[in-house]
Each structure stands twice: as structure tokens, then as C-alpha cells.
Amino acid sequence: MSRSKAILLPSLIVVALLGIWEAAAQWHLLADALNIEPFLVPAPSEIAEALWEDRDLLADDAWVTLREVVLGFACAAAVGLGLATALHFSETLRRALYPLLVASQTIPPVVIAPILVVWLGFGIGPKIWIIALICFFPITVNALDGLRSVDPDAVKMMRTLDAGRWQVFRRVEAPSALPYAFSGAKIAVAVAAIAAVFAEWSGSDSGLGHLILTSNAQLLVPRMFAAVIVLSAMAMALFGLLSLAERKVVTWR
Amino acid sequence: MLTRTGAPTQEPLSIGKSGAPEVGGATPGGDAGEVRLERLEHSFGRLRTLAGLDLRAAPHQVLGIVGPSGCGKSTLLELVAGLRDPDAGTIAVDGAHEPAARLARCAYMPQRDLLLPWMRAIDNAALALLNRGARRAEARRAAAPLFERFGLAGFEDAWPAELSGGMRQRVAFLRTLIAGKPVLLLDEPFASLDAITRGEMQQWLAGALAADPRTVVLVSHDVEEALYLSDRVVVLSARPGRVVAELEVPGPRAGDRAAAVTSQGFATLRERAMRALGEGAREEGR
Hints:
The complex is a heterodimer of chains A (253) and B (286). Chain A has helices at 2-26, 29-34, 44-53, 55-89, 91-106, 109-120, 124-148, 152-160, 165-201, 208-217, 221-249. Chain A is mainly alpha-helical and 253 residues long. Chain A starts with a helix and ends with a helix. Chain B has ten helices and nine strands. The longest helix of chain B has 19 residues, at 264-282. The interface between A and B is medium-sized, with 18 and 28 residues.
């Protein structure tokens, strides 16, 4: 009952909003109010039509972007978790690298993206770099926080039970840090799609970001909206997958 | 011990001195397990926690330590276990002075059960064996008989979150016991339980220690608990902690807690302990 309600209520709101939008677009209300051409304000039905008509194009570009996002995210997760572990084990390393880690996040990706494209070309390389750079920070910082938030009494208990440093890490610290790491990863995957668009805008010949850019230039507004919807659905699906993985792995919460 | 071939051997997975499967049978290390503290000094920065403390627990003796909160009782256990260094004085466990050597001889049961929520009850209990490199199946085989004996049969595969407070404490105590160390350091082991469960658990612990004697240093702020479980009770003063009274508890621990704690002799001892506690507390800030 409550579960079906939880799905029903937001759906009703979405349907209502789509209805209002449809009406406003069909009768040119918004276009007139903004004093623009009506074709710049596509109705939901037109966007749906574009989703169907351009399905092959959208699928091809979505596949390109999905690959970038997944690879970029995977690199960030691997490096981020590894670095968090290294920083956790070495006080010196933490002092040396943590400020640099924070500093790296103060440079906007919009600035870095074109530079990386200049250096690395139009291929998938710079996209993976940009996405990884953006995903890397929340994963590392959250995982490190998780490792450091461990109960000191649990560590003492482990030491009197003959645990070495590695066993304390494996049996206590790493599991305690898992929920934190998942939080970081979920933040990362949500921004990864945005990062992919930035990366593709800086120079590319395919991908959803590229499609949005070219549709915009060609005034194919419904197609642009369709690309945005596919991108958003992709990000939500990845987020959902991570949440599912978290529920499977972190069973004790 | 347990090996892949099943042949008895000392190496490489020695489970305590006698081996966990024999817990309750042979006592680890025979008469081993004396704890001796001499002129122990400790402070946190400028806060003096222990002032020239002398204490001794004979092998297989249960030494109860009571004192007002903040008198350094928990610190004392960490010092004995080798988890912390004293400012001055000597600590000997089984004649060993080095922190690492003390750590190898002491099992510490903290106030909270600290069961790892991502491990099943039996794996939590067998944690020491896993830490020493035993494979999971081996460790479980070693721990299983104890679940039966300590009233936890059927809960081997439960997650800690599925256990009641009393059961969690039992698993935590088993974990301490299975470590097979000659000395158990118990830091207010039942403080988090309600009064009824606490009483039951005290009786349970008395039984467990009768079956498997170890040297125990039991820290408590509950005079009744300390007197019921201990062979000797030491009353500490407020910070900095020093001994204000030592009480010998006569006779073997009674199986019937209700009868024991309401007896005339127990009441007399409790009164003496309470008075000593009161005096010790008044010395605060001296």
C-alpha cells in the first residue's frame, strides 16, 4: 500500500506537469510569453517522438557516453580506494597529499577539460581522465573518512585477540568504511554524467554530450531534450545499480 | 591442534595454550597467569589517573576492582593488556614485562560487546583464531562446542543484530575465552544490560569461570557484581586512583547468585566496600 503510494504520488505529479507542459507547448503559451518561435518549445509528445525516431542515434551516442562514464568511474574508484587506503596507513602520506587532493578539486573541470583535449586528443582518453578526476574526489574523501571513523575500542579488542595490522584493516576498518565508500561512489556516479557532457563539449565526435551540442546548433530542440532524458536515465540507472550493490554488500545496516 | 591432515601439532595454528576445543578442560598454562603491578603511575597530560598503584592477582584468581567513575579503572586494564604505557612502575603478566608479551597473554573484553556486525556470531566468537590464520571452517569447528556449553546453541549463524543484549555479551565473552589467554581483562562486562539480565549474566559468568578458571581482572562500578564474581576486591579512590581497601571474599563462588548476594556475610562485605568507596570518593581533588 505505502510502497505503491510511494510510486503513485510522484508519477501523478510527473503526469500532471507533463500535461501542463503539453498544453502550454501545443497552444504556444510559453513561446508567446517568451516571444520566441514555437518550435523552440517542444511538447512532451514531440520529445517522445524524437526519442522513438532517433532511437538508433541516441542508442549509439548513449553507448559511447556510458562507456566513458563507466570506465572513468571505475578508474576513479580503483585509484580512489587505493589512495584512501594508502593515506589511512601512512600519516606522512596523508599530511603530504591531503591538501593537494583538496586543491585539485578547486580547479573547475570546465577549465581542465579543454586542456586535456588539447593534450590527449579527441578520443575516449581525455573523457575518461575528466570523469575520473571528478569522481575521484568524493570516493577518496569518503572512503578515507570511513577508515578513520573506526571505533578505537574495536581496534584495541582486535589487538588483544592477536590481530596484526592487516587483520585489523581487513576485519574492522575496511568493513566499517564500506558504507562511506558507497556514499562517495554514489555521489561520484551522479556527477559522472555531468562530467561526461563537459568532456564531450570540449571536443568529441560522438556521445550524448556531443549530440546535445549538435542538436542545439541545428535547432533540433526535441532531439536535444531526448538526449538529455537518455543521459539522465542513464545516470539514474547507474545510481540505482550502486544502491543495489550497497544493499547486497552492506547487509548489517 | 587442527591442521589440514588432522594430525596433532603445535604449529602453526596454536589456539591458546591448551587449544580452544579443550576450553573448560585443562586450564591454559597450568598455574600461569599471575598479574602483578608495582608502583604504577599514569597520567593523561596533566591529569594524574593512577598514583603508585600496587596490585596482584594470583593465578586463577578473580580480582575485582571497584571505584568511582573516572578513577582510571579502564586505563588500568589497558595498561595491563599492553595497549598503553605507564609513566612509571612495572607491570608483569606471567612474568612478562614487554607490552607485546603482555598483549599476547591478555584477552580484553571491553564494556560494549563490540561484536563485528558483518560477521556471524560464531565467527565473532572465533575471531582470535581467524586472526591467527585459522581458516573459517576450522575456527567454526573449534568454537561450536562452546556455543552449546554456554547456552548459545542454535545461534551460531545469527548476525549480532539478531541477538539480545545478554546473548551479545555471552558471545563477546566467548570471544575472549576462545582467545585461550591465561589472563582475562573484563571492563564492566555487563554495564550495558538491564538489572535482571545483568544478574543472570553474572551467574552465568561465575559458572563459566568455575568450568574454565583463568586469572581475571574485573573492573566494575557495581560493588555487588564485583563481590559476587571476585575472590578479592580492591576499592580504588577517585582520581588519581590508589587502593583504599582490599576485601577478601571467602569461599567458592556460589552457583545461586540470589542466595549469595543476600547472605549475611555478603551484606557485611558490601557495607565495608561501600564505606571504602565513599571515603575514596571524598578524597577527590586532594
